[in-house]
Write a structure and sequence with these properties.
The protein has helices at about 10-35, 55-105. By secondary structure, it is an all-alpha fold. The chain has one domain (about 5-105).
Length: about 110
């Protein structure tokens, strides 16, 4: 994000919070996956008159679970990437600070 004077400003706390929120969203998707896995469409779930719906409902549920697994994976990977990016920025910042201090020492500052 552009800060004052067109400089780039990165608030580590905001990025960390966002990564944690993304991770919580992935946890919520996992809860939905667990709920879908606990469904039982066999036997009398639809009753005798609607038993023909078991096949299509099972297929739709399978596709939904597959999609949710994909979303969960993307969310977890996004949280990891946010944290990794933040760590890289922090490491680079520390490197720059160290170099500037070393240069200052060499110049007698």
């Amino acid at each position: 994000m552009a800060g004052e004077g067109g400089k780039i400003a990165l608030d580590a706390h905001v990025v960390s919070y966002h990564a944690a929120r993304v991770e919580r969203l992935a946890d919520d998707v996992q809860v939905a996956i667990d709920a879908a896995n606990s469904m039982n469409l066999m036997g009398g779930a639809f009753g005798l008159m609607c038993s023909f719906l078991i096949g299509p409902a099972t297929t739709v549920t399978s596709f939904a679970k597959e999609g949710m697994h994909g979303v969960e994976g993307v969310l977890r990977e996004s949280a990891r990437e946010l944290r990794a990016g933040l760590a890289e920025v922090a490491a680079f910042e520390e490197h720059v600070i160290s170099e500037v201090r070393e240069l200052g020492s060499e110049l007698g500052l």
